[in-house]
Amino acid sequence: MIRVVLTVLVAVALLAVSMPALEDARVGTTDERLGTESDRIERAVGGLVSGSTSVADPSLAARTTVTVRAPSGVAAARIDRLALVEPDRSGDESGAALRYRIDGGRDRTAAVVPDVVTATVEVVDGPVALRTSGESRLELSLVDDGGPTVRITRVE
């Protein structure tokens, strides 16, 4: 009987000591997965710009869609908020970013800025709220707005 009680107490103590490390691992996994999602958007922007020509009429613009998947499951931390935003602009910077908040913490950002693309990236009616669990679809269109511009909107 004493062995059982001691085994349970040791197990509870080990679990209590390991919980902060497990939570840190979940947050790290979520950060990494959202970084991968921002890379997916970046590749879609680059592919659209490199394989198409911008046009002035938005109805004739080249388009593509990309799916953003919010991390979920046992290995991922809970996401309170997830949105596609235009970052604070300084100088000639343009682009978009995934801004998210994990477990009530501070806002974090994963940039979506294709370095090799000569187009401006614009989030239409931003910030665009994305699902914190599951998938959100984004539509990218390439228009000529005083230069090549990739406009990103959410598909309902």
Give the topology, please.
Layout: H1 2-51, E1 62-70, E2 79-85, E3 96-102, E4 107-112, E5 120-123, E6 128-129, E7 134-144, E8 148-155
Parallel strand pairs: 5-8
Antiparallel strand pairs: 1-7, 2-3, 2-6, 3-4, 7-8
- Number-wise, the strands total 8
Mind telling me the C-alpha Rg?
A: 21 Å
Fraction of residues in H or I helices: 25-40%
Weakly predicted, low-confidence segments: none
Work out the count of structural domains.
1
Query: Overall 3D geometry?
Result: rod-shaped
Major sheet: arrangement of strands: 1-7-8-5
Mean pLDDT: 86
- N-to-C span: 59 Å
Tell me the structural class: alpha+beta
Kindly estimate the percentage of residues that lie in beta strands according to DSSP.
25-35%
Count helical runs. 1
Order of helices and strands: HEEEEEEEE
Largest sheet at a glance?
4 strands, mixed
